[in-house]
Write a structure and sequence with these properties.
With 220 residues, the chain is α/β, with parallel strands linked by helices. Helix content is 45%, strand content 20%. The protein folds into two domains: 1-92, no CATH class; 131-220, no CATH class. The longest helix has 17 residues, at 46-62. The protein is globular, with a radius of gyration of 17 Å. 40% of the residues are buried.
Length: 220
């Protein structure tokens, strides 16, 4: 459905904008293409990625999005092209978050990029907010946040953890971390340097409500 990229993205932003009726900001999700660039063993050039992201972000902006959340990024090259496409073709704020896995060498993206390098390079490309999403529960996100904060002392950090790691029960994938368990680590996440906290896979309205309750209670 590549010929419907503009139509679908414009409609997605417009529908959410209508649904929230001014009660919330609408952050438009921009995910990875699922393709590899030439330097990573694939067929796409950075220019190909830029063109694809440009079509998407312009449609989302015209549909009424208030900001972009470029998320679940594994490739630094791809993330940078998405950030540039958004910053150069719209006037909206840009968030960019990566997905990290834990290895004997520490946290890395699938392409081997550290949290520090990811944060620094997308910020240099123009991202207003950096961070991490998916791949980990809130406990692991605390260390990732510390690393990003050390790399960028003054840049806002967005963290969207899963409700724990996925578990297969029968033929269903479930996330076992309860709203209370997630909320219990929020103060540590804030202490590590997170400025914006949300949820990724497995999180529900109850998880978000529990997180929000902790944040509001801790405000001066």
């Amino acid at each position: 459905m590549a010929d419907k990229v503009v139509e679908f993205n414009h409609a997605a932003a417009a529908l959410v904008k209508e649904a929230v009726k001014g009660a919330a900001y609408v952050a438009a999700c921009v995910g990875p293409t699922g393709q590899l660039v030439e330097e990573e063993g694939g067929d796409l050039t950075p220019a190909d990625l830029y063109a694809a992201f440009k079509a998407q972000v312009v449609a989302l902006a015209e549909g009424g999005a208030d900001a972009f959340c470029i998320e679940t990024m594994l490739s630094l090259t791809e993330a940078i092209q998405a950030v540039k496409a958004a910053k150069e073709n719209t006037s909206l704020p840009v968030m960019c978050t990566f997905t990290f896995g834990e290895s004997p060498r520490g946290f890395r993206t699938m392409m081997g990029v550290t949290p520090e390098r990811a944060a620094k390079e997308v910020a240099a490309a123009g991202a207003d907010i950096v961070g991490a999403n998916c791949g980990n529960g809130i406990e692991k996100m605390i260390e990732i946040t510390w690393q990003m904060r050390a790399a960028l002392p003054n840049t806002p950090i967005l963290i969207q953890a899963n409700a724990g790691l996925p578990v297969l029960e029968g033929d269903k994938t479930v996330f076992k971390e309860t709203p209370e368990q997630m909320a219990s680590r929020v103060k540590e996440l804030i202490a590590a340097g997170a400025n914006i906290i949300g949820g990724c896979c497995g999180t529900t309205p109850a998880h978000i409500a529990a997180v929000a309750k902790v944040i509001r209670a801790g405000r001066p």
